[in-house]
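This protein record is not my work; I was only asked to verify it. Would you go through it and say whether the fold makes sense for this chain? Here is the record exactly as it was handed to me.
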Amino acid sequence: ANDICQSIADNLVAAWISSVLLDDRDKYPSIQNIEQVYNVHEALKAHKEVATKLGGFVGYKQGGIGAVQGHPAVYGVLFGCGLVDSEKGTRSCLSQSKYNLFGLEPEVGFILARDLPQKAENEAYTEKEVFDAVGEIVLCLECCGKRIQFEDASSLDKLADSSCAGGVIMGKRFKPGKMTNISEKTISSQTLTDLKASIEINGEEKCSGRATSNPLGSPVASLTWCANHLNSRGLMLKSGELVIAGAICKLKDFAAGDKINVKFEGLGAIDCFIDE
């Protein structure tokens, strides 16, 4: 089974690099269970060409609500090649053809300031403990992508494909704090739970939602689940890693060259576009 997962990871990495979708079931056998999904993810994280050609493993994305019975969420893996920081003057776009992008999702991102190792006697972290380990909160636009193209692709097949990761355009950053004071860029856990976001395409609003649609009902709850689930598998969130907490709303109706404006109510906006 591990050999199969390693082979799938090898073929996914080749598809990331070439931008050519996998359509051969010999190279991507059907994923049978959630454990195989996570085994593929671990093989991707450790893959030599992820480190040398895809910017390395940089963190996780949360999603997959309702995709796997008994699992309130499923995490995927993020690579550095797809990160764009719009606040540092870099070109605020990603290539649709390079990453096979098909969806846009406003999300709350967290950058860890310290590791969250497994606690004694497998005790779970609380939301407060996890939020206290956050160094920065980042407004994000996830640009979902794919490496597989099968008519019979299952939810598990798609989840093994980095949970449809593509890229992340990052906007304003805030320091976590008990009191919300935008001028000082501090923000509370409750503010994130109440957050509303929307996407405009060429000046027209196309979708909107609230962060209560995140896994487990809030960005911090989603992050906490990720930390505890990794611990349950003998892994951990590490300092410097980025976790995007889940979609606030979702949009598939866009095209290369569109002017995209993502508004996070009361916090800021990301102006960007998707290149060809």
Q: What stands out?
A: The chain has eight helices and 13 strands. Residues 2-18 form the longest helix (17 residues). Helices lie at 2-18, 34-46, 48-53, 96-99, 127-132, 155-160, 189-193, 219-232.
